[in-house]
Fold:
Amino acid sequence: MRQIIIQGRGGQGAQTAGNLLAAAFFAQGLQVQCFASYGGARRGTPVSSYLRVDDRPVRVRCDIEQADAILCFDASLLEGRLLACAHERTLIVVNSGRESAHFAAVLPGRRVLPIDGLGIAREHGLGRIVNSALLGALACTLQAPTPEVLERTLVEMSPRLHDENIAAARSGWQAAASLLQEVNP
Structure:
């Protein structure tokens, strides 16, 4: 079973990203469990989305304590409780314009892949909406869901700007692929 945590702040789209990712995994024929946790339910407060994905029905009904992957919409949230859910093999994809070396220095021993989701979103006319770029990057690191399934899900579930969302997801995938080649030549 694959366990994924998506962490952001209210209004950034972390919960929406969790729902999109869950729908994409389901469309690929996998069993999915997706649930969210948020504090005061207002803009700026921490929001988490949790996913479990497997070939078989997911029957576990507790919080995720050891994630296989973490998608973090705000680098300032890479601390305490969130990092406690990461083991040595957890891959952390973070929305940040900083270089990999920065995270290697401040989070030694962690596998952190910084993706400039904001830059990608702006490049493709999405403003501050980083979901598609970050989901493309995460899908690349996990090698699932496939790009085709992710793109189809974005078109089906995004109310508008379909071409822009697809382009951002592809750019996020490419950015992650480039960083992974640097890390694992």
